[in-house]
Amino acid sequence: MRDFIESFTGQLTQMGFPRTPARIFVALLTSDSSTLTAAELADLLRTSPASVSSGVRYLLQVGLVAAEGEPGSRRLHYRMSTRVWEDVVQLRDRQFSRWATELRHGVEVLGPATPAGERMAQTVGYFEFISREIAGLLARWHAQSASAGPAETGAGR
């Protein structure tokens, strides 16, 4: 399990994901319950509680995990959504939307007829296209997963 966690963490860090949050993300992904406490994460990842705390804080900020209390306990359990990959795609889409908004301002500042302004306008168009496609892809995924069994959607593999 640890070898897989480190291997997939490497894939995520190559794409720009910070290392400690990536390790925690993959640990939660590999957990049958998709829920672990900070102590369980520290033990599994062989890291310090402080490292887990900072990594979890990042994942909470970007919306990839939720913190849940346990009745009668002060311990928090960190839970990954069962739709985590949709969450990841939607997070990226929100980032593209923010970039498009900022780039529209850049087009106004530079002027749409300048080479840089034209480049920015093309980029805005690209991000708008990607956002429309993402919405369509997610809708098709929901339709497919609603009509298919777990083996057909990849769940349970």
Task: Explain the layout of strands and helices.
Elements: H1 2-14, H2 19-30, E1 35-37, H3 38-45, H4 49-62, E2 65-69, E3 76-80, H5 84-110, H6 115-147, H7 150-153
Walk across the major sheet and give the strand order.
Answer: 1-3-2
Number of domains: 2
Order of helices and strands: HHEHHEEHHH
Number of helices: 7
Shape: elongated
Number of DSSP strand runs: 3
For the sheet with most strands, the description reads: 3 strands, antiparallel
Structural class assignment: mainly alpha
Mean pLDDT: 90
Characterise the protein shown here:
There is one protein chain. The chain has a 3-stranded antiparallel beta sheet. Helix content is 71%, strand content 8%. The chain folds into 2 domains: 2-80, Arc Repressor Mutant, subunit A (Orthogonal Bundle); 84-153. β2 (65-69) and β3 (76-80) form a beta hairpin. It is mostly helical and 157 residues long. The longest helix has 33 residues, at 115-147. The protein has helices at residues 2-14, 19-30, 38-45, 49-62, 84-110, 115-147, 150-153; strands at 35-37, 65-69, 76-80. It is elongated.
Give a nutshell description of this structure.
71% of the residues lie in helices and 8% in strands. The protein is elongated and about 60 Å long. It is built from seven helices and three strands.
Relevant terms:
157 residues, mainly alpha, Arc Repressor Mutant, subunit A, 2 domains, 3-stranded antiparallel beta sheet, 3 strands, 71% helix
